[in-house]
Amino acid sequence: MTLVKFNSDKNNSQRGLVPSFNNVFDSIFTDSFFTGRDMALLPAVNICETADHFQIELAAPGLAKEDFKVNLEHKMLTISVAKELSNQEEGKNFSRKEFNYSSFTRSFTLPDSADDNGIEAKYNNGILHVEIPKREEAKMVARQISIS
């Protein structure tokens, strides 16, 4: 199973041994500030393979199962969340309205050994569990081999 990654170091191919003046500012503002912030917004993912299935665990506390969308298209499993919260207060001489949007998308390329029809997902205690069974012919079979 392959995790589809984004390229956070887009200036890497332009950097030599000694960075130019512009690349110093790019590395300070782009690499340190924005990349760190983007990485914090993506939930952590564990991917596990056993003899008969693959399992994806995605840590996303504070959400409800209705907030998730899990889609499968052309061997690409996509997990996404888009949530909008608004807070509105009114006082004597003021009015305040705040919006909070949170969203993310994680995509995984399924191997040929995955059984697309048997995928199951459940959300429990802040973790989304996605179980992807393997096809019968792809399951690891253990057997004793006799020595002659």
UniProtKB/TrEMBL annotation:
<comment type="similarity">
    <text>Belongs to the small heat shock protein (HSP20) family.</text>
</comment>
<feature type="domain" description="SHSP">
    <location>
        <begin position="36"/>
        <end position="148"/>
    </location>
</feature>
<dbReference type="InterPro" id="IPR031107">
    <property type="entry name" value="Small_HSP"/>
</dbReference>
<dbReference type="InterPro" id="IPR002068">
    <property type="entry name" value="A-crystallin/Hsp20_dom"/>
</dbReference>
<dbReference type="InterPro" id="IPR008978">
    <property type="entry name" value="HSP20-like_chaperone"/>
</dbReference>
<dbReference type="Pfam" id="PF00011">
    <property type="entry name" value="HSP20"/>
</dbReference>
<protein>
    <submittedName>
        <fullName>Hsp20/alpha crystallin family protein</fullName>
    </submittedName>
</protein>
